[in-house]
What does this fold into?
Amino acid sequence: MKRKKKIRPKDIGSAEPVLSPVETDDLDLLPGEDAPCPFEPVKPEIRDQYDFSLDGFSALSLPIPKTKDQQEQIVKSFLQGLEKLFKKENNWPFLLPTVLSTDYCMRCNSCNEACPIYIESGRNDIYRPNFRPELLRRIYRRYFTPTGRLLGKWAGADVELNWRAVYRLAELAYRCTLCRRCATVCSVGVDNALLSRELRKIFSQEMGIAPKEVHKLGSVQQLATGSSTGMTPAAFLNTIEFIEEIIEEKTGRRIKIPVDKANADIMLIHNAGEYMSWPENPAAFAILFDAAGIDWTLSSEAMGYEGVNYGVWYDDIQFAKVAVAQVRAAKKLGVKKIVVGECGHATKAIISIADRLLVGDLAIGRESCLPLLESFVTSGVIKFDPSRNDFPVTLHDPCSLVRLMGIVSPQRNIIRHIVAPGRFREMSNCGTSNYCCGGGSGLAITNVHNFAQWRNNISCRMKARQVLEAFGDCLDPAIPKYYCAPCSNCKGSARDGLQEYFGFKEKYNIIYGGLVDLMVNAMTDLPRPYISWEDEF
Amino acid sequence: MGEEIFFIKRLFTNNLRLWFGSYALHIGIYIGALWIVLLAVGAIVQINTTNQTGIIAGLFLVTTTAGAAALVLGLVGSVYLLINRCVDPDLRTMSDTVSFLNLWLMIALFASALAAWLAADGSFSHLRGQVAGLLTFKPVTPHHPLITAEFFFFGVFLMYLPFSRMLHFAAKYFFYHNIMWDDETMQPGSKLERERLKELTYRLQWKAPHIKANRSWLEQVTDEQEQGGQKSE
It folds into this structure.
């Protein structure tokens, strides 16, 4: 569906109450969907207080400035941040890709059709993956280059800033999941998603603007308590006891989960969301590691039991603080390496991004869990019976693990060994051309005001479409189906988007879960299935 | 990388309509670069011998063919891209003025050279003489206004190129090798580590409340670690 009114980058500061409203009529229906859920109107008292002027939604709760001074300060502060973004002292980790991606986009729009949010929004102009980077380019040129100052639009510098433009740009930076699918189709190599993150950095690092779930309740809370969930070391130890009970209840085995074991081969670190929302997942890891005879441990040190690093989505300094603290917890235990559980962004953060930060004695081995889990099925150290997973299964590729780190085959090899023949089906666009779960880069945990409606209805829509297409031959609810998402964040999207919003469990009997859950379900020496279809998810 | 340079594969896969024009333009530029090399070789031969052998005649013929092909492909590709940018509402929406100016410059460059070839220099012998003049520091005056125009636009192009996004052919190397496929891991004592250690001492100027202004990256991390540990124990 094509929208009629075109929004140009230079319109960003226009006086329109809402620059580009999203209507449910613009959305393409999913198979079996009569009509998209309507967006609930925002209460007038909320709308009067906070800025909803981009698209009618708010992820940031930006208070509308009351005075001219406040308005001018917003613009001034943004420009100060933008200038710093291009200084090596303030942005050495990402300066090269930032400068190159700013300077060399050819405006060919090839990236547009790669973006699930742009497509599923009915091709709303403001959601083009090159729209917000184009704003950054034009603003930078307008305010920080001699040609831009002198020649204006003739030098491609036609965006005049006002407070509304800055606020809309801030919100727009959170209408992208940073899946970087757009970057993989660019012939030049321009990374527009990276520029979206760079924009987020200006807002967070200069203006103190970030979704509260990501910053205040996320990385700040993590650094203060040890976990983004607020779970303290004492609470963590209680949770481990609870998980040991789950294991005994589900398998009949009494496994003592090793905690703070000095000099172990592996320190396993989970997204702490698993402990809170899906304890079966760390339990499954414990069952597998115990069965395989791995020398491993968890850490109860603050920061040592929480794998998330939200800084990777919005703030380099918060990222660095968290990554270094996590590694120090591992060094304190004297373990040989860190293995990250099923969490995409945590894996990418500690393995890839932190690599340029971990100098000197902070250097320590860091791995994804997937190759290790693959070795369990290929070595024969654990016996699996694929017939125990005799139901349709499809696999989600978390962007961070697959497209951004190249971990593509281990999870598929595992599935080949643990799922009944003919039951596994790939989604269209799998592997490195996958689509995001819809909740990447913090969107899954951002629930302020009406933002969850936007996320579920638009951002998660492509993944919902893919899942329905993958199970297109067996949508009958009499057939149970498993959507395997080996990432905590992606499971959060599945829970809120696919299950609660689109009703996949109720309508189609599709449940979601991790890869280790599926592995334990196939273990030959367990008395009963590990996955409980009726009372979970 | 080779697939991208010679075939612009990602554009072919993801934006076929634009690829036709882009590919014609880029192939025109590649052949154009070869044509300039052939003109230079011909000029050197011309400086050193007056005999017209079969090999030399062949060289001149190849030069003429390459030049004609480059100019036609370059012009067709540029015009195709400009038309697309004007008529496609999505492209027009996202284009800045520079996007149009760049294409107009390419059209002027290729069109003037093509017109000069057709009207005044069918065998490119005058251009070859110009190159020989450059090599021997004996400038030759263009004998036709179209050749003057050709030189003018080529000069503008060369001066403008380093400051424009048309330099993406050079940026592409860094995109592919220093960003996308940079898999070098940190090794103790490595040059990479030494560089990062220096960068970690840079003092931050960011002003958000959670950042300690004018403190180094290392200091930001160290202080927070101590703070976090105390609070959690």
About this structure: The first helix of chain A runs from residue 44 to 49. The two ends of chain A are 34 Å apart (CA to CA). Chain A is about 45% helix and 5% strand.
